[in-house]
Write a structure and sequence with these properties.
Elements (H helix, E strand, L loop, with lengths): L2 H10 L2 H10 L4 E2 H5 L6 H13 L3 E6 L2 E6 L1 H15 L1 H10 L13 H4 L3
Helix pairs in contact: 1-4, 1-5, 5-6
Organism: Paeniglutamicibacter kerguelensis
Protein name: DNA-binding transcriptional ArsR family regulator
Keywords: DNA-binding, Transcription, Transcription regulation
Amino acid sequence: MSETNVDVFTALAHPTRRQILQDLREGEQSAGEIAGRFTSSGPTISRHLSVLRAAGLVTERREANRILYSLAGEQLAHSVGNFLSAVCPEQMLLRGLRHRAPSAASPADVSPEASLGS
């Protein structure tokens, strides 16, 4: 597993970080707004945000004296997709079928065992 994927799954391991990601689905939020939703201290939430940023799951921008965070969902989708493809051969088959021409067989027409040479 790549280092980026390890960072993503490490970031997802903590329930507070998962909740932060869910909250950011609503849109950009300041560090103070995020911290206000938790009983943890500001520095603790700041460390969680740092882990999420290092994993590429959130982006930040400065506006005057505030730091605003946004969800970077593409990185999460890419990392989880790569992981599933590695551990679930059926996912590789389905991904290959999606990239074929429209006249190609649908996933229901091809069994995973047949495509994997079983």
